[in-house]
Design goal:
The structure is a single chain. The protein has 124 residues and is mainly α. It has helices spanning 13-21, 28-40, 45-68, 73-78, 80-89, 99-123. The chain has six helices and no strands. It has two domains: 8-64, no CATH class; 69-123, no CATH class. The longest helix is centred in the last third of the chain and has 25 residues, at 99-123. Helix 1 crosses helix 3 (45-68). 12% of the residues are buried.
């Protein structure tokens, strides 16, 4: 959750609208104060609703980006350790919304396990 600084009455109207738009990310007391301050400033209710709409749209776009994120050959060339470890040991990709990466992970795990076994057996 976000910290409660600066004081609500010192924040800009846009900052207060961001709090109200993303109220699930904030302490309920902060949201309540932000709503009260917006009311004191005579900010129309439709602006509050618009802030919530913008937050939902932003969340939807982020979810779509996560769902479409994928591994590429360049990932394994420039950051091999990070990506190999992620493929082998990350168990929450699908749960976290990385749908394409989760599908790729299944066959990449198989390939990596086969390569590791081949390397180990070849060394014997």
């Amino acid at each position: 959750m976000h910290a409660h600084k600066p004081e609500i009455n010192l924040r800009s109207t846009e900052a207060l609208l961001e709090i109200v738009g993303a109220e699930e990310d904030w302490n309920p007391d902060v949201v309540k104060e932000a709503k009260a301050e917006l009311q004191r400033r005579n900010v129309p209710n439709d602006r509050l609703m618009h802030a919530k709409y913008l937050k939902r749209k932003s969340d939807d776009i982020e979810a779509m980006k996560r769902a479409q994120a994928s591994y590429s050959l360049l990932d394994f060339l420039f950051r091999p350790a990070k990506n190999i470890l992620e493929v082998l040991f990350a168990w929450e990709l699908k749960k976290d919304g990385y749908l394409r990466k989760a599908r790729q992970q299944r066959w990449l795990r198989l390939i990596l396990v086969i390569l590791i076994l081949f390397f180990v057996l070849h060394q014997l």
